[in-house]
Amino acid sequence: MNRRFALLAGLFLIGLPVCASVLAIGSRSTRAASQEARKLPDVIVLAKDARLGQVSFNHANHATKNYSISGTGPIACVECHHTAQPASEVAKHPPLKTAWPADRTTTLTADLLSSGGDSVGLIACRSCHARPGTTPVNWPEIPTLKHEDSAAILTLTNQLAFHRNCANCHEEVAKHRQDVKAPGPQKCTQCHKK
Fold first, then answer.
1. 71-85, 113-127, 173-187: which has the minimum mean pLDDT?
2. 130 burial class (0-12, 13-18, 19+ CB within 10 angstroms)?
3. What CA–CA distance (Å, rounded) separates 169 from 120?
């Protein structure tokens, strides 16, 4: 009996490191899988509860085709995801102020996203630009901004932030590119569909 116990104990002691190794490899591959390539979304549905209807935003086209204002390349991720860059870069683009997290050292790119690195730091717009009457998840209050042409202070709710970002870009495209008809801010139902 002691001999059988010794044999079982020996197998256990040999098997334990093997099992631990298998578990560690499995854990690493699980971690690697979570850091694996994240695919850029093709279409994102915005304004799901908007009175004029939702907006189907073709993220893939904006991120991969020549949709920049100059028409020479895709729109950089940080044009919309402005918090996904170091604070020193954000400061170069007033009125933007916030990097998230505050100690961020990387700038979001399609390559960074697809690498699945821990430093992607992508947050939802509503995490800061919340709906009116709600508190943002990542910020003590909805960001505000002094209006460019007056003393008015604007509360950058998700609706206002989207409209300013999208409409301003579309207006710039209309000014600089005759080859494209980007939806304009005066024609709401070009983007909003019931």
1. 113-127
2. buried
3. 24
User: DSSP alpha helices (H): ranges in 101-192?
Assistant: 110-115, 158-176
List residues bridging with 144 in a β-sheet: 155
- Give φ, ψ of 89 to 5 degrees: -80, -40
CB 185 within 8 A of CB 171: yes
41 or 30, higher pLDDT:
41
**What is the residue type of 11?**
L
List all residues 6 or more positions away from 144 whose beta carbon is below 8 Å from its beta carbon.
Answer: 153, 154, 155, 156
The secondary structure of residue 125, as a DSSP letter, is G
Single-letter residue type at 59: H
User: What is the rounded CA–CA span in Å between residue 121 and residue 104?
Assistant: 8
Domain boundaries, the chain: 43-193
User: Does residue 30 have a pLDDT over 50?
Assistant: no
pLDDT digits (tens, 9 = 90+) for 97-156: 889 889 999 999 988 888 876 567 788 889 999 999 999 998 899 999 998 889 999 999
Rounded CA gap, 140 and 138, in Å? 7
